[in-house]
Write a structure and sequence with these properties.
There is one protein chain. By secondary structure, the chain is an all-alpha fold. It is built from two helices and no strands.
Length: 48
């Protein structure tokens, strides 16, 4: 299956479910290095 086909199939399946808003990972088990990386991204104006 190509990535393009996968994207179309995913879009179709999500639409069939009413385009639900999926929960984000709460991050309770993140390592210190991952927390530092995400903080640096946020500090640079990004949003993860």
């Amino acid at each position: 299956m190509s990535l393009e086909d996968f994207g179309r199939d995913l879009t179709r399946r999500r639409a069939a479910l009413g385009n639900p808003e999926l929960p984000r990972n709460a991050g309770a088990n993140r390592t210190d290095s991952k927390r530092a990386l995400l903080a640096a991204i946020e500090h640079a104006g990004g949003r993860w």
